[in-house]
Amino acid sequence: MISLGIDQRAVAHLSIDNQRKLNVLDRAHLRDFADRVDEIAADDTLRAVIVTGAGGKAFIGGADVEEMSRLDPAGAREFITLLHRCCQALRDLPCPSIAGICGYALGAGLEIAASCDLRIAAETAQFGMPEVRVGIPSVIEAAILPRLIGWGRARRLMLLGEIHGAREAESWGLVDQVVAAPDLGRALERTVDSILKTGPNAIRLQKQLMRRWEELPLAAAIEAGISIFGGAFITDEPRRMMESFLNRKRDSSGS
């Protein structure tokens, strides 16, 4: 089951709940996940999305090996394309997404986490890309990993299939913050609070631009920034927020 709720702050909470199997993803879960992300992507008022796994033992323990063991080549392409759809939907969300990782984030789980904009992990979290140990390569959004952690560490993850702890993942840049397991919820809320202090239009434009940076050569990326900067002034958000900033600055100086 994939549960979805949107709170009064326009923050979506998306949770994978397949606790009996460490939140592994089969076809049904993948379709449900992608559909839920597509649903919230259409909400222009949404400020942020938090992605978690239910139960505390796993964020996502991977794709369902039992189901994959019965695939033929055509079924394998269909299955992995469905997983890619989930990752792509997260990457294309107009607002920031945050993975709250407790327990295992393996294979498909690590790809889902890497597809989020930010990753906060409990100190008990464990990370790995163990696909080669069950006879398949790591593919699709595993391609993000060298950009996050460098080619050397990505090779170690995907060629050896080893499991790594949260502190090591943090030192690699695979996760942004590690906290004690009981503090994970509070750390996610602090991050959301920071997002809510930004301009709603500005942060969506920022994410849009950063996604374009991933695809463009440097000169084109800079030119895209000039265009998006100008577009930010179509609304009155910059004027309102800059005036508020200047007023606070005047008040603090006593002038």
Name the CATH architecture of the largest domain.
Alpha-Beta Complex
Estimated structural class: alpha/beta
Binned strand content: 15-25%
Helix-strand topology string: EEHEEHHEEHEEHHEHEHHHH
Overall form: globular
User: What is the third-level CATH name, the topology of the largest domain?
Assistant: 2-enoyl-CoA Hydratase, Chain A, domain 1
Computed CA radius of gyration, to the nearest angstrom: 20 Å
How many distinct beta strands?
Answer: 10
CATH class (first level) name of the largest domain:
Alpha Beta
Strand order of the largest sheet: 1-2-3-5-7-10
Total domain count: 2
Largest sheet: 6 strands, mixed
- The CA-CA distance between the termini, in Å, is 57 Å
- What value does the average pLDDT take? 96
Number of helices: 11
Low-confidence stretches: none
By CATH, the superfamily of the largest domain comes out as 2-enoyl-CoA Hydratase, Chain A, domain 1
**Helical amount:** 40-55%
Overview of this protein structure:
With 255 residues, the chain is of the alpha/beta class. The chain has two domains: 2-196, 2-enoyl-CoA Hydratase, Chain A, domain 1 (Alpha-Beta Complex); 200-253, Lyase 2-enoyl-coa Hydratase, Chain  A, domain 2, CATH 1.10.12. It is 50% helix and 16% strand. The chain contains eleven helices and ten strands. The strands form two sheets. It has a six-stranded mixed β-sheet with strand order 1-2-3-5-7-10, sandwiched between helices. Strands 4-6-8-9 form a four-stranded mixed β-sheet. Strand 1 and strand 2 (11-16) form a beta hairpin. The longest helix is centred in the N-terminal third of the chain and has 20 residues, at 73-92. It is globular and about 65 Å long. The N and C termini lie far apart (57 Å). The model has no long low-confidence stretch (mean pLDDT 96).
